[in-house]
Amino acid sequence: MEFEYRNILKETPTAGEIMELAKVGNLQVSDLVNRGSKTFKDLKLDISGFAPQQVAELLQDNPKAMYRPLLTDGKGLVVGFKPDGIQEMLAL
Question: Is the pTM of this model over 0.85?
Answer without folding.
Answer: yes
